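Q: My collaborator sent me two sequences in one message, no labels, and asked for predicted structures for both. Can we handle them in order? The first one she listed is below.
A: Yes, handling them in the order given. First sequence, followed by its structure tokens:
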Amino acid sequence: MAKTATSCTLVVVRRPRQDSNLRTRFRRPALYPLSYGGGNWEWYALMRPTPQPVYARCPLTHSMRYLSTRGRAAPVDFTVAMLDGLAPDGGLYVPEVIPSLPDDWATWSYQEAVSGALELYGATHTEELVKEAASRFHHPEVAPIVEVGDRLVLELFHGPTLSFKDHALQIVARLLAREVERGVVLGATSGDTGSAAIEACRGMDNLEVVILFPDGRVSDFQRRQMTTVPDRNVHAVAVRGTFDDCQRMVKEAFATHPDLLAINSINWARIAAQTGYHIYAGARIGEPYDVVVPTGNFGNVYSCWLAKRMGVPVETITIANNANHGLSDLVNTGHLLETGVVPTLAPAMDIQVPSNLERFTGDPMVEFKASWCDDALIRRTIATVEDAHGYTLDPHTATAWHAGMETKTERPQLIVATAHPAKFSETVPPPHWFPTMPREERVVTIRADTSELTHLIR
């Protein structure tokens, strides 16, 4: 453990705002450079290169400890990290080490991969809970891989709200409900997290769920998924602002109300659960491959990176952005630009401040490739794939398809499909099993001011 590594420099440049058929078929050791206490990350405000200890990956870990990214909080176990969401110093929890996968991981089923990931990160007694969560999905493989042309597509949209967020949130809600007598779950959404969190928590006697979303900046389908749920423990809150405002309000609320429960990917349990389906994908493909992940808040791509470090044979990870391309800029130039959020056809990625970036300790220019496309290119990509292959992409997955064109190699390339196209198109019907949403909507509208949340979270 005497080795040292150097973290990258993240520079913020401020500029003025402008008005299903599977093609089935190693692992490498992983080192995790830890850097905790990198200063104020509110705007990722310059992380200086400093020597850091490098910890080799370790096997199993019910004693797994979690540290704050800001280095001013005591270590905790998985359960405390999950219940706290944010660390007391305002940082995000990260594991002290990244565990390695066992020798038989390539034989794991979906349920075994997700349960295995959770338990490697310190969760306990997860098998039945994961089995219950998987039963909510409407595909026998839960997360099938299909061939589309010369690509593989990991379909993560067969859950109850047609989004990849269902995979983690069906589990996280059950974990939270198991640990608390009574609690308030607070989250922010750019589109899909909210409906997945509400669906996972609705009807639970010991959980209230409060979800903030940017007013007018989610699709009608996404909004109605949140606002038409009749259960009395569900509270959908429209914020006059952006997703970044919603995310800021959640963090401020956690600072003053420590008993709140986190459902966003600031909660480590969600990251751990998402790692499970990336492990499952690696087991299905069975050879070295490349991955393209559409992402806004860096959570899904970070989960993929963790799976790679644990031993999944992922060679390259490509980040796909929409017109809000801060992560793509960071990977390609080393600079994260602070610009205004642009509304796009892929609203779940309309994010300027990717909160999970605080967890990442490597050099993004080395660890990732990245690309982005605007709305016109999203439309063109959807049409091209539909014409060539008879397969309909949602706008978020279209950004991944486009980015993958630039990074395709001879290896299999896996496109991570994060949402069903019906959520973003009036011409694509939802699956036959999807229930008709009621007409009546229940929603509270507030300013982007945390004080207006008080009566909803006390």
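Q: And the one she listed second?
A: Here it is, processed independently of the first:
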Amino acid sequence: MSKQLHKNFTDGQVKLILKSYLDKKIKISYILQMLRIKRSRFFELLAKYHKDPDNFSIRYERRTINRKIDPDIERNIVKELKIEKDLIKAKEVPIKYYNYSYIKDLLEQLILSNFLKLILPSFLLPRPPAESFLC
């Protein structure tokens, strides 16, 4: 048997069980065992049934698509893969296969150059003459 309630029981079956519970014909322990749900889920269903018994349904409707990633993320992944493919195909790059160390070196160079761009302006600030440090 499946774990999902909507795959194991129809709406009518669950309605009948909930109605029987409300009429005190069935004990909750038996219902929990039969439906294979916990108490909290049972009381969620019962509250939903109380709100609108005629339109009560256990059908599961997905709100979002779970098998797709965000288009921006997908574009970024494709862009990065193209860069890596170009690295592998480039004649001036000494690699035949996917080379993690070469890409690591490129990233280190990029990080180092960005770091130098950040700290270089502080080195270029005007400094007092060396004699001013002497007492």
